[in-house]
Design a protein that fits this description.
By secondary structure, the chain is α+β, with helices and mostly antiparallel strands. It has a single domain, classed as 2-Layer Sandwich (Muramoyl-pentapeptide Carboxypeptidase, domain 2). About 25% of the residues lie in helices and about 20% in strands. The chain contains four helices and six strands. It has a six-stranded mixed beta sheet. The longest helix has 24 residues. The chain starts with 9 loop residues before the first helix and ends with a strand. Bound molecules: zinc ion. The site of zinc ion (ZN) has 5 residues, from strand 2.
């Protein structure tokens, strides 16, 4: 299979944890390639900050997520840009000198984006996100919505914290828009 971009293989772009078909159609593949061009710009910028000799400094944890995979992904939105191949989750590799905060800050300052999410981790803006969600859909590249995702306690309408059937405290994701 041809690569998505210079720095994203087809397998990386369509990889999922589930043993089910996750093949993008032509339009989804085109979205992936459009995003891939900007991922390559990010990749090049981060590479310049590296000390010599580190071959791998960013992981792609998820890019295209077809309907079936999306349905199996906890917390995944039905309108996720991943469904269109227009989002990529990036995780810097520890010890390389590149951090998720650096990736987030670079995209925010220098690249077009539809949405950019600081995914969990420690507090914005001085901490480090657990990973970075970079969403870019052609035609919507100037929307530039920035969100901070955090886990919050799940409560009922009376404000009581909910527990699951095993007695574990339940959490939900809150998105704060900057
Ligand atoms: Zn994502």
């Amino acid at each position: 299979m041809e690569n998505i971009s210079q720095n994203i293989t087809y397998l990386q772009g369509t990889n999922s944890r589930h043993p089910i078909d996750n093949t993008p159609n032509e339009a989804q593949l085109a979205n992936m390639k459009f995003l891939g061009e900007y991922f390559d710009v990010l990749y090049g910028a981060m590479k310049e900050k590296l000390k010599d000799g580190v071959p791998k400094f960013m992981s792609i944890t998820c890019m295209f997520r077809g309907k079936k995979v999306n349905a199996l992904t906890p917390g995944a939105s039905l309108t996720s840009l991943h469904l269109q191949g227009a989002a990529i989750d990036i995780d810097a590799i520890d010890g390389t000198g590149i951090t998720n905060k650096m990736i987030f800050d670079y995209i925010k300052a220098h690249l077009p984006f539809t949405e950019l999410i600081w995914e969990f981790g420690s507090a914005y803006p001085n901490g480090n996100p657990g990973w970075v969600h970079y969403g870019l859909l052609k035609g919507r590249e100037n929307e530039k919505v920035v969100k901070i995702a955090s886990k919050v306690l799940k409560k009922n309408s009376k404000g009581n914290v909910l527990k699951d059937k095993n007695g574990n405290t339940m959490y939900t994701t809150a998105y704060t828009r900057l």
